[in-house]
Amino acid sequence: MSDGKQHEEKVDITKDLVIKENATPAVLYDGKTFKYDVELVYIGTKYKEIINETVGTFTVYIGQKGDITLDHNVDTRDVSTVIKEYTEDAMSGGTIIPDIIKDAKADNLFSDSEQAKNFVMFLGDTCTDKVIDTRDASYILKFYSTYVMDSMDSPDGTVDVKKIWDEIEGKKK
Predict the structure, then answer these.
(1) Distance in angstroms (rounded) separating the CA atoms of residues 156 and 134
(2) pLDDT, tens digit (0-9, with 9 covering 90-100), for 47-88
(3) pTM
(4) DSSP 52
(5) Most distant CA pair in the chain: distance in Å?
(6) What are the respective helix, strand and coil percentages of the chain, to the nearest 5?
(7) Measured between alpha carbons, how far is 89 from 99 in angstroms, rounded to an integer?
(8) Which pLDDT value is given to residue 2?
(9) What order do you get walking across the sheet with 17-19 strand by strand?
């Protein structure tokens, strides 16, 4: 029995939502900012017509592993900052992370201070144990020294950063 109303079939389109092609951290990160808007694209059909259109964006934060100073470089300043953070935490239970964010003038990038702190912790916790400590400083120093040596040995100065981190972390190739 028909009620005279047209009924549309409900379809779950979420399975057809994808991140815009080539929107990977390696492609997006430009070494100038940490905040990126990524397009969410619907690829599917509507009324038997193929559709490929942007339906929205979301914000992602991308930085270099080990760059706790938020200066877009991983170097000895990061090592000393990690040691300062570890010492502050060990001596008083405090943190210097708000100072890092302020010094980097990065506080305007984040919606709140907790988000900024989490981002700094994410970049600085190189051994992924949810603590910034001397082991992270050691990993960053090893990364930096390997990076410098590899870039000097490379004819064009390019270095495989992922390979260096994988070696430091003991990951299989």
Answers:
(1) 33
(2) 556 667 777 888 999 999 999 999 999 999 999 999 999 999
(3) 0.80
(4) E
(5) 79
(6) 45, 15, 40
(7) 14
(8) 57
(9) 17-19, 35-46, 49-61
What 3-state class would DSSP assign to 19? Answer: strand
CA distance 34 to 32: 7
Q: What are phi and psi of 70, to 5 degrees?
A: 55, 40
Distance CA 54, CA 162 (A): 31
Which pLDDT does position 47 carry in this prediction? 58
Q: 146: number of CA atoms within 13 Å, CB side?
A: 16
* E-only strand ranges, the chain: 17-19, 35-46, 49-61
Q: Within 10 Å of residue 11's Cβ, how many Cβ atoms? A: 11
* Residue type at 166 in one-letter notation: D
Q: What is the pLDDT of residue 52?
A: 73
Residue 131 contacts residue 153 (beta carbons within 8 Å): no
Contact 54, 111 (CB under 8 A): no
Q: Is residue 63 within 8 Å of residue 119, measured between CB atoms?
A: yes
Task: Give the whole-angstrom CA distance, residue 125 versus residue 137.
Answer: 9
Count other C-beta atoms under 10 Å from residue 172's C-beta.
4
Quickly tell me which residue has 């930085």 as its tokens: 63
pLDDT digits (tens, 9 = 90+) for 19-50: 777 788 988 999 999 999 998 887 766 655 66
